[in-house]
């Protein structure tokens, strides 16, 4: 693939990423406008996080489309905006889950710290060469498993104990999306430059972009769909059911 063709392919990939995330932003905005609930996490604070996650990511992909703040180190171009995006949106994403679980401050801090360490160590790793790449990449992966521990451990138990079966079922969908889909990131990273270089930079960019869209857009769709705010549009009925509420359920017709 020629350099010119590669540039065009990357531009198309980042444009598709920006579009998909913009769709997620619109979905979250419409859900917020339709929903008059005051329950956690579907109050204004919860929707602010749901809107910010795809919106900020979409802006990052627009910037990557034009190589804004891209740097070249050790002969490899690095999209720094990708890591800025992750450093901002992924704490919001896992923070939303902690907020939905109504976790205590210590647990929330633990979740966010594990997430930030995962992102920051991964960024520092791509700037290195030799053994340092694998050491820092390994530490980033350890931080990922710490995050998984929180998602499948303390937060999971909180939702089970306080939210009931319905609320836990919704949380489990979000948890599985994040926990399992994010596992693909370190795998792709190991196969990409500057690690084993099995994948090209262009292929790596495509894979990560589509995983980003799947994770963030999927997260928004699951969260808003289980809020039931689009039920009236789909069924023509103004009443709707809500699964993820503080008492584990809600009677149809309650406003």
Q: What's the layout of helices and strands?
A:
Layout lengths: L2 H32 L9 H22 L4 E4 L2 E4 H21 L4 H22 L4 H22 L1 H28 L2 H8 L9 H27 L3 H5 L20
Antiparallel strand pairs: 1-2
Helix pairs in contact: 1-2, 1-8, 2-3, 2-8, 3-4, 3-6, 4-5, 5-6, 6-8, 7-8
Keywords:
255 residues; mainly alpha; 9 helices; 3% strand
Outline the structure in words.
There is one protein chain. The chain has about 260 residues and is mainly α. The protein is built from nine helices and two strands. The protein has helices at about 5-35, 45-65, 80-100, 105-125, 130-150, 155-180, 185-190, 200-225, 230-235, and strands at about 70-75, 75-80. The protein has a two-stranded antiparallel sheet with strand order 1-2. A hairpin with a 2-residue loop joins strand 1 and strand 2 (about 75-80). Helix 2 packs antiparallel against helix 8 (about 200-225) and helix 4 (about 105-125) packs antiparallel against helix 5. It starts with a helix and ends in a 20-residue tail after the last helix. The model is unreliable at about 245-255 (pLDDT under 50).
